[in-house]
Design brief:
Elements lengths: L1 E5 L2 H10 L5 E5 L7 H17 L4 E3 L4 H8 L10 H20 L4 E4 L9 H15 L2 E2 L8 H4 L15 H25 L13 E3 L8 H11 L3 E4 L10 E4 L2 E7 H5 L7
Parallel strand pairs: 1-2, 1-4, 2-3, 4-5, 6-7, 7-9
Antiparallel strand pairs: 8-9
């Protein structure tokens, strides 16, 4: 039996789709997650995936105060630096100890599926812990393409920052900086459409955008980044699911799918 530490639902999906574990217990242990409301969201997403895929699972102790007391000294470290290394070490060490308690033969982690983490670093930490505690560590690369796991994520909560308070602060700063830069671009290239900034992160009807050339429309959407583009039946874009605008993919929704033929929201 293998104990698999789980950091989040998306990486859990990537792991089970990439590699088969005949006997496994999936272990959610993440005291780094801040705030507690975020922890609850990720825990619920983890449980939902486990139920749907019929996976055996268990939850570890959540003690954010103990985590914060130890990691306060690393708060200002860069993402991917000493703070992240110590955080992964703490969770893998706990996984190794827990695997011994439940008589699992080996341990590993879905951190190996994360596109933002160094696989070499994780495997190095895992092997060091294995040597100390005498529990076999199963390393590897558990990453799969986003396309493979996307069908499973339709109604699953997906986080937008790593987990700890420091990463949340950085995520907010990065988002604010992106919004500032995008607003400057909008004000420069599309100054007559600045009033549409209110649709940032919201649905917008294509009729609101006085641009008919698809190339220019993509350029505009890449700057505005609405949550989706509403189009009417018969429109050139109707029936398409996505409109790729540079690095940004804009979701396309038919108005009838949202509001029905009567115009009332479904």
């Amino acid at each position: 039996m293998t104990l698999i530490h789980v950091c989040c639902a998306p990486d859990l999906l990537s792991t089970v789709l990439k590699r088969e574990f005949p006997e496994a217990v999936f272990y959610f242990y993440n005291p780094n997650i801040f705030p507690e409301s975020e922890y609850e969201k990720r825990l619920e997403a983890f449980k939902t995936v486990c139920h749907r895929l019929n996976l055996n699972y268990m939850e570890g102790r959540y003690d954010p105060e103990e985590f914060s007391a130890f990691f306060e000294r690393y708060f200002d470290e860069e993402e991917g630096g000493a703070r992240c290394g110590k955080c992964m070490e703490m969770r893998l060490k706990n996984a190794a100890l827990t695997s011994g308690k439940i008589h699992a033969k080996s341990f590993t982690s879905t951190l190996l599926a994360s596109p933002r983490k160094s696989i070499d670093t994780i495997n190095e930490i895992g092997m060091e812990i294995s040597n100390v505690y005498g529990t076999e560590y199963t390393g590897g690369n558990f990453r799969t393409g986003r396309k493979e796991i996307k069908p499973y994520l339709e109604d699953i909560y997906v986080q937008n920052y790593c987990g700890c308070e420091a990463s949340l602060v950085k995520s907010r700063r990065d988002r604010e900086e992106r919004e500032r830069m995008d607003f400057e671009l909008l004000s420069g290239k599309f100054r007559n459409l600045v009033h549409l900034w209110k649709y940032r992160g919201r649905l917008i009807r294509i009729e609101e955008i006085p641009i008919r050339d698809e190339s220019s429309l993509k350029e505009f959407l890449a700057v505005l980044k609405p949550s989706g583009l509403l189009v009417k039946k018969g429109s050139e874009l109707y029936g398409r699911n996505w409109l790729k605008a540079g690095k940004y993919n804009c979701r396309i929704l038919g108005e009838s799918d949202i509001y029905g033929e009567s115009g009332q929201k479904n």
